[in-house]
Structure formats: structure tokens, C-alpha cells
Write a structure and sequence with these properties.
Blueprint: E1 12-13, E2 31-33, E3 37-39, E4 48-49, E5 55-63, E6 66-73, E7 81-84, E8 91-92, E9 100-103, E10 109-112, E11 116-119, E12 127-132, E13 138-142, E14 147-150, E15 158-159, E16 165-166, E17 171-174, E18 182-189, E19 195-200, E20 205-209, E21 229-232, E22 237-240, E23 245-247, E24 258-262, E25 268-274, E26 279-285, E27 302-305, E28 309-312, E29 317-319, E30 329-331, E31 343-348, E32 352-353, H1 366-375, E33 381-385, E34 390-394, E35 400-402, E36 409-415, H2 416-424, E37 429-432, E38 435-438, H3 460-486, H4 490-502, E39 509-510, H5 513-519, E40 526-530, E41 533-539, E42 545-551, H6 557-568, E43 579-585, E44 588-594, H7 601-605, H8 609-612, H9 620-639, E45 644-646, E46 655-657, E47 663-665, E48 672-674, E49 682-683, E50 704-705, H10 708-723, H11 727-735, H12 740-753, H13 757-767, H14 778-791, H15 802-811
Parallel strand pairs: 1-9, 27-35, 39-43
Antiparallel strand pairs: 2-12, 3-9, 4-5, 5-6, 6-7, 6-8, 9-10, 10-11, 12-13, 13-14, 15-24, 16-21, 17-18, 18-19, 19-20, 21-22, 22-23, 24-25, 25-26, 27-28, 29-30, 31-36, 32-35, 33-34, 33-36, 37-38, 40-41, 41-42, 42-44, 43-44, 45-48, 46-47, 49-50
Helix pairs in contact: 9-10, 9-15, 10-14, 12-14
């Protein structure tokens, strides 16, 4: 009868297994037995309460006539929620028992309103009770107390003491204060094993904590522990596998109730409960300056400290929704593409928009930087740092803020009508929604009386005479400077050209050519040679072994050098070779990197039959480790850098092995950088890479090249790790012609057709490197073969991403 009283959405309740302890009459129950239910109609009374009374579980009112099934702190004044089942699908609360949470006879705890809204997915299990523990953990267990499901494995925006964040579990913020819906902020482990805070919005994604300006070691983290586990204890001490550790300011008192919450504003905070007052106190916070949280004020918005964070729109922009600043600002009026007669720039001192720079340029004048943005219709503003010549054209305006210690000025592109309106009002300040940025405006019409006649018209005789004198003087200076500087001292000329590098290299040590010549004994010990130059082993004065890459006397040497160095400052990963310094003394261009002792993969993997007959060069465990490490490195380049980075020359010669046979990808001479916002592809003017590893689409000049080209090359390397032989030699030996696509088609058909495990094992042993003598993991080998076949697909769109490849390989770690 009650079901007829349903209005609208009803919560399909968490109905799953519950086994219970007998409670004395009058006490709140902590157990929901099999077949039992909790109804929305009795939301205030029909709840589960933990034995200590610290936590309650039931239907929680989130809005008028809207409820979620949740666990909350009983003693907090506002009944703070610790966990929510159906946060994105609240149910109707119009008194009806059809909206209920129930532990079904099938063993499934569900939340439903005539349809399932949420479920523990434990149907078919022997669950007989759902129980709320003193830890705040809601568990579904069988009669023996074995846990079949627990809420600790499915956190929402909060962690409780002893509840972990793991490789597969993350915190997701609420969308707004008081609303349960999922927001855009995440607390998670990235693929480098580092705990991060990330803004993952509908338009962009970016990490903002720990500081994206630093390397992980500068943030006191480590990427070498892949267990990916973090939690805090009852004392208020948080520890994680990446060496993140922090303490509550009231650390030590185990009787205090605590929670770690990713709040709706994107900040991660540790709270302690004052039980007497029922109030929470912040005892630790991740981001000390709230304006450094990304996405806070949406696109085009600016956050300022006053002293709390305040959002506003810059001049020429208006809010999209004044009640929700996460929606940002929009141009008003819009800016049409054109020159100085259509658009102008407004100076915004002490302001910065983090990220989304396109065509970053160093060592340029202000006017040149302004022209770069003016000529690009997609450029919305540019940043310029006087004294350094650093130019940052921006194609998207996100994470705007007015820093406490300003070090940059933003020049915002606006319609000329907006700039004219400001001048006509004779304003010396730019006021935009409460912000005041000092700007020294000048009346451009004021001129010298010598250039004007009595009628206030320009006297052109004086004007052109003045220009002619200036031109002659400048011409004389140019000629004299060339004769006395460039011709007298060619090294100085080279040094002038090299100055363009000085800003790029602020993160590295600059070596002299003589230093590197001494370190390498006159470049005597050549350890490798490639298309862009030779590599020599050397030893620095402090005893460190180094590898020095000396670019050859090629027409593209300077291009290659700039390409490599533009990448160096942007990337860091344990499976990428570390660069320690450089030398730029015309005509010498050298890179100094760590020396990786076991050399390149090709030397370890490919040996002449006469030299290695019956000898296992690389054991299977090392081959699998190499495959995983290279995949992780490429996934990092493709998916985690602020710009898309394509290696373009993945091959065994560019994979180095350290003392533990951990792979390190090297040689970025052919790297091309792709702006995420300009699209994930590029067109090359000439074929890049090494024959045999180049994707088919790279042979078509002008055809878009994406990260899928690296996926293809990696697939070839994966086949070579399996076979222990160059794929080109393997295919040629098989049927006398180089046709990888035919081989891939045959392998694909073979994998699809042979379902018999024993038969697959037999032909795998024939295919995998004979020198292993069958000593390899058959499950890993079969999966790697299938993955390699997918990677070398002739159609780029059918190849998997490197992120998917890396995850697949990692998932094979514990297989037998």
C-alpha cells in the first residue's frame, strides 16, 4: 500500500548482506539482517548506529525531498557525511517504503525506488548481514563474519582513519558546498606512483599539488615504490608509498575523531572533531594558498587573495554564472581576428594564468612577443617577463591568479572598443569586478610642438628629416659592430647566437667544450652513434660517469639541439634518461646525461648466433620489466606532460639498461612537441625515425602524425623482446620479404583461432626466443604478443593508447 504514495525518484536502497549481533531492547541496531530494509519514510529514526555511537547509517537528506544512502558522524553538529552510496542519484523522499535500502535474499545490498539506484553487486553470495562498524566502515558479511563488501573500498570525498587511498581508489570532491554530486577535483595516484590533486574539468585537466613547477624529488616524493597506498592512523599521522607524510596539528590523541576530505573547493584538508561542541577544526591543509588550486574560478577567471580567495573577471569579460564561479567568464564583446585596428592589449600587472602556453619563446623583445599573439587568432593573451625576454603566448586562460609575490605581467587581448572606452574615461586603473590592477596609461595623441604647425598639423619636413638621421646612425652602428665584434672574434659571434639558449638551460649546468673534452679524453671512447651524432663516455671531476652526445656537423644539428633542450625542461620520469647539462660553444653542441651502465637494449638482445649459441642473453623477467618500463615512459610522454610529446624514434638502440636492467628511454633528437589545445597530431616535412620501426603513416609526407606512431614502434620492440631477433630479419627469414602487416595478420588469426591452451603453449614456445629454452611466463608472453599485434595495426585509430598498453602490461605482473 505504501508503494502507491511514491512521488518521482525513489532511492533504490543499498540492499545487501547483513549479519547481526543481538542488541538489547531499546538500543539502536548496528546490523541489517538478510531480508531487512531501511525506508526513506523513517529516515530520522530507522538508521544503523555503530556500537560506539560515533557513526550512523541510513537515508541522509541532501535537499528538499531528496535523499542519499550514507554514513555520517553522529556527534558532529551538521551530521557530516563520511561516505555516500548514490551521491549522483538521490532518491525521492515522499513518504514511501518503496524508496529503501535493503539487503536482499540474494545477498545484494541495494538502494532502490522501483529501480536499482545503487548496489553492492554481491548477488549470489552467502551474505546474511550488513553492519556498521566503529571505524565508520559499512560491511556486508556472511554468517562467519567474512567481509564480502565494504564501504572503505569505495570512498567518495572522505577518508577515515585506517581507510586507504590506493592504485584503484581515489577521492572525488563534491560539486558545491552542501551538495553530494561528484565534482571536478580528484586525489589519486598517478602513473608515476605519486599522490596528486588534480582538476579534471569538462575542458581541461591539470595537476596542481604537489607543485607542478617542481620535480617529484624536489617535492620530497619518490616514484620508485609502485605499491600506491596511503592512509592516516588514529593519531592523525598520514603516510603513503610515495613518501608523502603529514601530521594533524593535534597529533597523538587517538580518541579524537578525524577525517581527510577533498573539499568542493579542491583543497585537501584533515579535520579533527571537537566532540563537546560538535564542530570541526582544520588540523592540516594541502594547498596553503587557495588561489593555487586549479579551476577555482573557471576559464578566464582570476583568483586574488583578499586575504581569502575572491574570483573575478578581467576587463572585457563577464561572468557566465555569477552564482557559480567554476563556470568562469566569457568575452563581452567578442574579439574578432585582426590587426591593431581591431584588437588591442590591456596590461594586467602582477597577474598570471598558469599553463596553456603555445610557442613559448625566450630572448625576444616585448614588441616581438606582442606581435606573436596579435598574429595568432587563437592567442587570448601573452605573458612577458621584462629583463629575461621570456614570452608566453596563451591560447587558453585558466588558473588566473594575482600572486602574493608577482613576477609576471599579462597582456590581455581585447576588442579595441574596450581599450578606447578605458582611455576615454581617463582611467589610470583597470577595475574588473572588484580587482584593481595599476596601469600607467598615457595619452597617445600628445606630441612635441616641433612636429606640429600652427594649425596643429604635423610638419612632415621635420618628421622625415628626423627619421632619415635615425636610420643613418643605426646603419653605421650595425656596420661597425659587425667589423669589430663578429669578424674580430668569431667565438664572440657564436656566443651571441648561443645566448638564445641561456634561458632554456636555467635548470642545467652549462659546461665548456674544454671541460667535456677533458672529461672524455678528447672524445676517445665512443659508445654509440646515431643519425644525430655520436655518444662518448666520460668522467667528471667529481667522479660521476657521464655520457656526452656530440651532435654531428649536420645542417639540422642546431634544430635537433633546440628540440632536445626544449623537451629536457618539461619531462621527468624514472624510465627516461636524466640530462645533467649541455655545452653550446659555436660550432659545438653537446648534451651531458647520466651514464647508463648496461648499454642499449640491442646489444643485450641481439647477438650473432656464433657468439651466443644456447646462451640466454636476457632472462624473461628482465624482458617483461623492460617492456613495462618503456611503456610507462611513453605513456608519461603522451598523457602526463603539459604538452603532447612524441618520441618518433622508439627502437632498441634508444632504450638503455641500468645496473638492474631497468629501462631508460633516450635520444630525443627527433622529438616533436604537440600542443594539447592545438590538437593531438602534427604533420612532418620529412620522414622521422628508423626504417623497420616507422609507422606506415609516417611515410606519407604531410599526413598527421600522432602518438600512435610511437605505439607502432613500441609494438615492433615488443615483438623483438619476444623473439630475441630483429623483426625485419625475422620476417625476411620467414618468407623473403619485409611485410610486418602480413605477419601481424597471421599472428592475429592464430591467436583468435587457437583456443586450446596446450596448443597455444606449443606454438608460443616455437615463436618465443629459443635461447630461453622454454623458461618464460606463457600467460605474459601470450598477452604481450596479442598486445604487440594490436600496436602494429596498419590503421592508427585501431591502435591502443600508450596509457592502455602500460596498464595492460602492469596488470600481468602477478600472473603465473
Amino acid at each position: 500500500m505504501m508503494s502507491r504514495r511514491i512521488h518521482g525518484m525513489c532511492l533504490l536502497v543499498l540492499a545487501t548482506f547483513l549479519s547481526c549481533i543481538a542488541l538489547s531492547a531499546g538500543d539502536h541496531r548496528s546490523v541489517l539482517w538478510r531480508g531487512g530494509s531501511i525506508a526513506v519514510e523513517d529516515a530520522d529514526e530507522n538508521v544503523l548506529v555503530s556500537p560506539s555511537g560515533n557513526f550512523s547509517c541510513g537515508f541522509y537528506k541532501v535537499a528538499t525531498n531528496a535523499y542519499t544512502f550514507a554514513v555520517w558522524f553522529t556527534a558532529s553538529a551538521d551530521a557530516t557525511v563520511a561516505w555516500t552510496a548514490n551521491r549522483d542519484s538521490p532518491v525521492n523522499g515522499v513518504g514511501s517504503r518503496a524508496e529503501r535500502a535493503q539487503l536482499l535474499d540474494t545477498g545484494n545490498l541495494v538502494d532502490y525506488d522501483g529501480r536499482v539506484v545503487w548496489s553492492t553487486n554481491t548477488s549470489g553470495t552467502p551474505a546474511d548481514r550488513a553492519q556498521l562498524l566503529d571505524t565508520g566502515n559499512l560491511v556486508v558479511a556472511d554468517a562467519a563474519g567474512n567481509r564480502l563488501w565494504q564501504s572503505f573500498d569505495w570512498p567518495t570525498d572522505t577518508l577515515l582513519a585506517g581507510q586507504p587511498v590506493t592504485r584503484y581508489k581515489q577521492l572525488v570532491s563534491a560539486s558545491a558546498r552542501g551538495l553530494p554530486y561528484s565534482g571536478y577535483y580528484k586525489f589519486y595516484f598517478d602513473s608515476s606512483n605519486i599522490l596528486n590533486l588534480m582538476y579534471d574539468g569538462p575542458e581541461i585537466s591539470s595537476n596542481y599539488w604537489p607543485s607542478p613547477f617542481n620535480k617529484w624529488w624536489d617535492n620530497n616524493r619518490t616514484a620508485y615504490n609502485s605499491s600506491r597506498y596511503g592512509s592516516f592512523d588514529r593519531r592523525g599521522v598520514f603516510t603513503a608509498s610515495d613518501q608523502l607524510q603529514f601530521n594533524a596539528s593535534d597529533m597523538g590523541d587517538e580518541g579524537v575523531m578525524r577525517r581527510l576530505t577533498l573539499d568542493y573547493d579542491g583543497n585537501l584538508r584533515l579535520y579533527s572533531l571537537d566532540a563537546a561542541a560538535g564542530r570541526w577544526h582544520v588540523t592540516w591543509v594541502a594547498v596553503g594558498r587557495q588561489c593555487y588550486v586549479h579551476g577555482l574560478c573557471g576559464s578566464n577567471g582570476i583568483c586574488s587573495f583578499r586575504p581569502g580567495p575572491t574570483c573575478s573577471c578581467p576587463v572585457g569579460y563577464v561572468p557566465n554564472d555569477a552564482s557559480d564561479w567554476s563556470k568562469g567568464c566569457r568575452r563581452s564583446p567578442d574579439v574578432r581576428c585582426g590587426g591593431d585596428d581591431v584588437v588591442d592589449f590591456v596590461e594586467m600587472p602582477h597577474t598570471d594564468f598558469w599553463g596553456f602556453d603555445v610557442n613559448y619563446t625566450a630572448g625576444v623583445t616585448f614588441d616581438a612577443c606582442r606581435r606573436l599573439c596579435l598574429d595568432d587568432c587563437n592567442c587570448k593573451a601573452f605573458g612577458y617577463r621584462p629583463g629575461t625576454g621570456r614570452c608566453y603566448p596563451k591560447i587558453a586562460l585558466w588558473n588566473g591568479r594575482i600572486p602574493i609575490k608577482p613576477d609576471q605581467t599579462i597582456y590581455l587581448k581585447v576588442a579595441r572598443s574596450v581599450k578606447n572606452q578605458m582611455i576615454n574615461q581617463s582611467s589610470s586603473f583597470l577595475h574588473f569586478d572588484g580587482h584593481a590592477c595599476t596601469v600607467d596609461e598615457r595619452d597617445a595623441s600628445v606630441g612635441s610642438s616641433y612636429l606640429h604647425g600652427r594649425s596643429n598639423e604635423i610638419n612632415f619636413i621635420y618628421f622625415y628629416s628626423f627619421l632619415a638621421v635615425v636610420f643613418v646612425v643605426e646603419a653605421i652602428f650595425v656596420v661597425v659592430g659587425y667589423l669589430f665584434v663578429f669578424r674580430a672574434d668569431p667565438v664572440a659571434a657564436g656566443r651571441v647566437r648561443d645566448d638564445g639558449y641561456s634561458l632554456v638551460f636555467s635548470h642545467f649546468r652549462r659546461f665548456t667544450y674544454d671541460e667535456l673534452s677533458d672529461a672524455t679524453c678528447g672524445f676517445r671512447d665512443e659508445i654509440a652513434k646515431g643519425g644525430t651524432g655520436s655518444v662518448y663516455k666520460g668522467v667528471l671531476e667529481d667522479g660521476r660517469s657521464i655520457a656526452v652526445k656530440r651532435l654531428g656537423e649536420l645542417t639540422q644539428a642546431d634544430e635537433v639541439f633546440r628540440s632536445e633542450l626544449s623537451v629536457i625542461g618539461r619531462i621527468n620520469h624514472m624510465n627516461l634518461v636524466r640530462i645533467w647539462g649541455f655545452c653550446s660553444e659555436h660550432p659545438h653542441r653537446l648534451l651531458v646525461s647520466e651514464f647508463v651502465e648496461n648499454g642499449s637494449l640491442d646489444k643485450a638482445l641481439f647477438c650473432d648466433d656464433g657468439e651466443s649459441s644456447g646462451v640466454v642473453v636476457l632472462p624473461w623477467r628482465s624482458r617483461y620489466k623492460i617492456a613495462v618500463g618503456v611503456a610507462k615512459a611513453l605513456a608519461y610522454l603522451h598523457h602526463e606532460c603539459l604538452e603532447w610529446i612524441v618520441h618518433c624514434d622508439v627502437k632498441p638502440e634508444n632504450i638503455l639498461l641500468d645496473g638492474d636492467f631497468e629501462p631508460k628511454v633516450t635520444d630525443f633528437g627527433l622529438v616533436k612537441l604537440l600542443s594539447r589545445d592545438a590538437g593531438s597530431h602534427m604533420a612532418l616535412s620529412r620522414v622521422q625515425g628508423t626504417r623497420g620501426y616507422i609507422a606506415p603513416e609516417c611515410w606519407t609526407v604531410g599526413r598527421p602524425i600522432t602518438g600512435k606512431a610511437d605505439v607502432y614502434s613500441f609494438g615492433v620492440v615488443l615483438l623483438e623482446l619476444l623473439r630475441g631477433q630483429r623483426v625485419c630479419d625475422w620476417v625476411a627469414a620467414a618468407d623473403g620479404a619485409w611485410d610486418l602487416q602480413r605477419l601481424a595478420a597471421w599472428l592475429k588469426e592464430k591467436l583468435k583461432r587457437d583456443d586450446d591452451e596446450e596448443e597455444v603453449s606449443t606454438w608460443l614456445e616455437e615463436l618465443v626466443d629459443a635461447r630461453l629454452r622454454g623458461d618464460f611466463n606463457h600467460v605474459q608472453a601470450a598477452a604481450m604478443l596479442e598486445l604487440a599485434v594490436c600496436c602494429v595495426d596498419g590503421e592508427p585509430n585501431r591502435r591502443p593508447s600508450m596509457n592502455a598498453v602500460a596498464q595492460k602490461l602492469i596488470s600481468l605482473h602477478d600472473t603465473r
